[in-house]
Amino acid sequence: MKALILNSGMGSRMGVLTSEHPKCMTEVSSHDTILSRQLRQVAEAGITEVVMTTGLFDSVLVNYCQSLDLSLHFTFVKNPVYDQTNYIYSIYCARDVLKDEDILLLHGDLVFENQVLDAVLASEESCMTVSSTLPLPEKDFKAVIQDGHIVKVGIEFFTDAMAAQPLYKLKKEDWNVWLEQIIHFCESDRVKCYAENAFNEVSDRCQIVALDVRNQLCAEIDNPEDLAVVSARVREVENRTVYMCFSADMIHSGHIAIIKKAARLGRLIVGVLSDEAVASYKRFPLLPFEERKSLFENIMGVSRVVEQRKLSYRENLEKYRPDYVVHGDDWVTGFQKPIREEVLNVLNKYGGHLVEFPYSNDEKYQKLEKRARADLSLPDVRRARLRKAIEMKGTISVMEAHSGITGLIVEDTVVYQNGEARQFDAMWVSSLCDSTAKGKPDIELVDMTSRFRTIDDIMEVTTKPIVFDGDTGGMIEHFVYTVRTLERMGVSAIIIEDKTGLKKNSLFGTEVIQMQDSIEHFSEKIQAGKKAQKTKEFMIIARIESLILEQGMEDALERAFAFVKAGADGIMIHSRKPDPDEIFEFVEKFRAKDSVTPIVVVPTSFNMVTEEEFKARGVNVVIYANQLTRTGFPAMQNAARMILEHHRAKECDEICMPFKDIIRLIPEDV
Ligand code: SPV
Ligand code: MG
Predict the structure, then answer these.
(1) Which sign does the torsion angle of CA 462, 468, 469, 475 carry?
(2) What homologous superfamily is domain 2-236 in, according to CATH?
(3) Ligand 2 centroid to 589 CA: how many Å?
(4) Less CB within 10 Å around the terminal CB: N or C of the chain?
């Protein structure tokens, strides 16, 4: 497409403002003339060819255009009789470079906002800009419109007419008809009328639709009064702000394209989602917030980058009050719908607008996303993320997994509530559940090789950090090897309990014989583990069984402080009481002296306490230790029983997941 800009006019109504240069070189802002603004807009819209008709001061104009240093190729055509003819003749002079081309036709004194040009260029049919909201001007162009099509353009039409501005997109089949008629006019010496007079005679064959720009800026400057009004509008347009929010840690061409579009609406403020918000709804970001921020700061078209702390836009919209929010149209449905509704509510309050562009979930993006997930599952990357998650969120939630499929459930389950997404932060490889899945008691009978095999199965299909239930940790001489192996695999933490001898599950409490280790010996085990550890991120967490074995709060606290001193990276305090009082008491007393060491709890019996309450009390890790095992296996027992009872499988079908869904639980590739 070529842009045809008509600049042969004398601009005599502008007075002294056009005594040394053509009207199009009049300033409309501190940094733009009418022409520099037009040309920049044209170039930004992707047009590279400009045909410009000139007249008086043509060399000034040519030099000026070249000096603007835009990536445009110009063809200047001088109308030698500019003072005796109208622009119809200028177009005639340029006819040879205009035939058989799609044309963007505009007068050189027209000032318009980007959105107007975007709408014109997006029109599938030939179009002319009109305004249904402006009053009909006395002396300027009006267009007579029938069935959405322009049938006449001129200053003399008032019936069925709308104010019209000389900005056209002309498809070559329509333009050729009009241009032929212009040639015909000029060759029969009708050179003092408008080019539109020629159009009016062929409008039945040259189909131009009316594009209603309503109150958007699209105005000609004929005299100093127009200049004052339009300059004020330009100022207003240039002060507009646009807001977009990104969670991306990899920028691809799709991002750049939408940023470019958004920046055409005004000064673009990019909100970068906090690490916590990204991790909550998508996956752990590969790059931390500061790095993602600087990524966006270096993209052309972005004026400012700010943090968006939550998925909700409210805080930033109220703070920056952007004129526009830009988003892909994918959030019209799905989990982001409430966020969109909130955005619309806030925008409505102060008169902002939401602009939605078609969302493209292109293949390139999906490939990048797949690569990011693969990176997250690498041992070094995965191992380090448990500490980061605790730091970032304060309190994390960890779910039991005992196989590849339960790992996938922990990995992929997301719940959307009020525009927030909730998912588990990490996985707990429980000794109870790992043993149960193998049909064995939880007495350290399943050996480490087998336990590592379970971890490996889970790791093969997931990316979330893993906390390993290391039982007692075994003999110190063995424990140091366990630590190294787990580190090498990419496990983030091991929790060992201060018991000795034949370990039984804690939930049996004092109903079975269980021996607690001495503070000295267990501290030695922790020290040996810390010494054996190769990476700085791996955590050895000491689990205190004093409350389980009814040894009292003082004993629990004494052990906790001793184990931290021995090098433990966290303390797990366990209880099997149905109420949380002793856990709360421990946390309060421990926190009074130690505000930093992470505290872990396993609320299997005291399960009424919410994560929010644990967080408020200073707990950092909440482990749901056995719920997948306790729901999955009874469902299987039930199915087996039903088939035996009914001598067939039909009745059990209603408690079965449909076959197509079970297949979908497994991703095609990871
Ligand atoms: C496990 O899940 O194996 C545990 C936690 O150690 S508990 O069963 O509560 O002892
Ligand atoms: Mg256990």
Answers:
(1) positive
(2) Spore Coat Polysaccharide Biosynthesis Protein SpsA; Chain A (3.90.550.10)
(3) 25
(4) C
